[in-house]
Amino acid sequence: MPGFLLGPPTVPLLGNAHIFPTAAPHYKFTEWARQYGGIYSLKLGTSTVVVLTDAVAARELLDKQSETTSDRPKFYIAELVTQGKHMTVSHYNSTWKTMRKAVTTILTQKAVAEHLPIQYAEAIHLAYNLLRAPQDFYTEVQRFSHSVILSVIYGKRAPRYDAPQTAQFFHVLREWNALAEPGSSVLIDFFPILKLVPERWAKWKRQCMQLRRMQRAMYSALLGETEDRLRRGEENGSYMEVLLGRQKELNMDDEMKLYFGATMLEAGSDTTSIWFQTFFLILAANSDAQKKAQSEIDRVVGEDRMPTLDDLEHMPYVRALILEMHRFRPNNPLSIPHCTQAPREYNGYVIPPGTMIIVNLWGIFQDPELYEDPEKFFPDRYLITENGTKPGVDASALRHNLPFGHGRRICPGIHLAESSININVMNLLWAFDVKPETDAAGNPIPVDTLAYLGGLAPAPAPFKCKITPRTAAKAKIIEREYLAATETFSKFEVGLSPEEKEFVARSRVPMDF
Q: Is 58:52 a contact under the CB 8 Å cutoff?
């Protein structure tokens, strides 16, 4: 007979709602995993949540049984804001399948390779801006990641962070992440009576309506710009142009078009920028790993040119550092929840239909049974064993792209994201030293590698560090490459305001090193 999962003790009516963590839930989920095991359950009212802090269980349930575990849980906030059309959080239904087909048809590995020129150019722009204003690194990586995906999806780049359209995008994105944080939004879905609270007494309802208005205005404007460019015969190869040309073939209605772009733009802008904010945070706290990676890059690349993707295969330590970054501080510590559409059994446990399944990536990657000293940033672990685990541990379920999701919900932009990460890690380590800021006496001010903000994808809390060019010669190479990228940029510098055009022109005046 199948059994039932263990979990924290419940109370009548509430289940575990009274102890459900509403901020940074991955910490509490990991604590419970050490107590109740790699798969345990919580009760929220009459509904069930299963937390997986076990990579094997996640593989078996979400990868191998994806036909019945690819749904998303009830997400009332997302319904209010996006009417169920946002691919990341929408249900596993015909609408999602149509949009997913469009993504996989258009966002192929070959298509990603065709967009490498703008990725290289934007990576050089990132390095160039760090020469000019290194103190702005936190927002500059946001500009970079947003500009790459904006160029690829809509054929339009973002030359500066504080341009009105770019600033508006990140404002909307912050509002969306705050509303969608699992710890705060989940209680509304498991206690439906909360949906009946009048809007005047439910601040979150007013926030949802305002966010919907802002989202639709912003994405409608971007879509309209792309359609106008097509009518003028000024295509530049963006994915949205391809989608518009194949709209009938792909069976996409107007709402799907809108949220196709929204989903891709938000995911590409947010996750990559958070990854690089964390990258600077970790480098500032780990000078030995930084120096070791720089030594390897210098040996492979030398002093006279910037790295290319072809160089990475000759850099085992840099590849290990990238993998350790994913493990040490995963972008989505709890991934995005799945939901069962049929009863499942695993290891003798019954999992009923409609169960929310949360993969606790944080708990998996911080498991001392899997990793030696998991709280230490140690890229060498991936040189000792393929998956960074202790020798002799069965790590077959710990695939390298685990942070990108499971089953049919795996991130469709994985190839684009990996290219951006690989190019920039090499560039930034080749070009810069990253150190902690110093106090008035010249003493280093330690950074806190556990200080993160809230939200669906938590970012590091703003911090300070010193970013300086390793040599004047390398700084000159960055400037030379940036000026040489003008032709690549010009293809995507469409619809710029007069202020932005002036800003671009000023940025292309050679610096005095």
A: yes
Q: How confident is the model at residue 105 (pLDDT cuts 50, 70, 90)?
A: confident
Q: For position 69, what pLDDT does the model report?
A: 95
Rounded distance between C-alpha atoms, residue 373 and residue 383, angstroms? 15
The answer to whether 397 and 243 are in contact (CB under 8 A) is no
DSSP-based three-state secondary structure for 338: strand
In this prediction, residues 457-474 reach a mean pLDDT of 95
Q: Which residues pair with 40 in a beta bridge?
A: 51
Residue of 278, 318, 330, 321 whose CA lies nearest to 447? 278
Which pLDDT does position 374 carry in this prediction? 97
Contacts of 41 (CB under 8 A, 6+ apart): 4, 5, 6, 7, 48, 49, 50, 51
The residue type of 107 is: L
- pTM (2 decimals)? 0.93
Q: Which residues are annotated as a binding site for heme?
A: 411
Q: Which residues are annotated binding-site positions? A: 411
Angstrom distance (rounded) from CA 239 to CA 107: 8
Residue 383: per-residue pLDDT? 97
Distance CA 165, CA 155 (A): 15
Element (H, E) at 58: helix 55-58
Residues forming a β-bridge with 11: 15
The angle at the Cα of 101, spanning 66 to 84, to the nearest 5 degrees, equals: 75
Of the candidates 1, 32, 137, 155, the one whose C-alpha atom is nearest the C-alpha of residue 468 is: 137
Tell me the C-alpha distance between 215 and 302, whole Å. 46
